[in-house]
Amino acid sequence: MKRSKLIILLGIMFTSYAFAQNESDALRYSQRFFGATARSAAMGGAFASLGGDFSSLGYNPAGIAVFRTTELTFTPSFSMEDISTRYMGSSRNETDYSFGMNNLGLVASFNNNREKGWVGTNLGVGYNRHNNFNKNQVIEGVNFSSSMADYFIDGPYGANGYHPDQLEPFWERLAFDTYIIDTVPGYWDWYETPVMLGQTQREIISTSGYTGEWLFSFGANYSHKFYVGASLGIESVDYSRKSNYTETDDMDLSDFSQFRFSRNLNTSGTGYTFKAGAIYRPVDLLRFGASVHLPTFYKLQDEYSHMMESWFDTGDYYSAEPTNVNGNPIGARIKEYSLTTPFRFVGGVGLMLPAQLGVISVDYEYVDYTSMRLREADGGYDFYDENQIIQDVYRATGNLKAGAELRLGAFMLRGGYAYYSSPYSDDQVNKDAGITSYSAGFGFREGRFFFDIGYVMTTQEEHYYLYEYQDMETALGKSTNNRFLMTVGLRF
Fold first, then answer.
1. Which residues pair with 127 in a beta bridge?
2. Which residue ranges form the domains of the chain, and what is each CATH number?
């Protein structure tokens, strides 16, 4: 569970090799990428000062008070994730497709037909999806510098200096039981490996799942000038990661042929949060919005399992799963823990174009990722090392979003841009791993019916370490996500 702080401070962050509760998990469930409806997605998610769209209930809850009619929305989505990787001079490309429900929402509007004072109150309930984890990637290259067997022997928590019965059953012991590492003759706590350098390394990683939020919101409108709102959020996590790591002696360097290290992780849980915000319209052409999001308090459960297999030119084959000191199978490990995500502060300004020609909006979001905290559910483990690493390797960030909408009668044309700054501090290898989104779309409104189409292209580059080892070369991954959304809505 614990990590070598020195290694991580040198930049080894996107490893996720331990498949246990760590700082990478905290970040994964703390990041938010708003834009649950096609309209908000097409406008970069810049709705802090606009409102009138169900996405805003999770971003600035005061947006619910802008509604003048009761509204029902439904938004299915389709995503295509393309990831290209480069490692040890070799390139690989993988594509994954996924469908999902991005939004389902109902806003009930209650107006008293007055123009001054508290002129209306609105209630809302529904679901917005934040993150989509569906992706596949392949990393492959020939390594003349190190092997994962070296990590098992003398990595941060390597086998050297320990009796085989003392080895971690989900890690080094598996390598020992499959003869990927073995004790040096005459020694009981010193190890060697038959794996010769120049082997082909490959890791195939498949992730799936999402984070989403059920919202219960309330808002009020004061003289069509001042709007306030609040939302109670119940957030859910469903995440799965499967990794198959192999090393193969394609050059026939020794009797060793191949080993495979398989790791599976499933995470599920629920969290609770509260948000409040306000929108002020000093004149008809201008709006200001701001909101604060309390941390989400998650209760999560990890279930992870490992196994290892090895093949030798002699025909020998070995397979191992985690066992205790008596040789009995342990089975999957299940661990419950809690996570507190950061506060969020959001501000925005919107410009209403004359003659109802459209809108332009810009938002800024502040998030301090150093404030994330992991806690043991039953109080047994303090997560001191992980929480210290969170403070050392992450930083506070500012995210920028901008959007525009042009109205042409019953039709609307939209465009947007968003930049999510890298959450990593300046001494980390992924300090520049920001996320950029470009978006576009159109909409149609006629009577009580409307529909919107949105498209978002999101790009990111990030470095990834296959395992912790000195002078280890990173794999560079470049991802492009193309997301299509369609919102169908009715007004009553």
1. 104, 214
2. 5-147+195-491 (2.40.160.60)
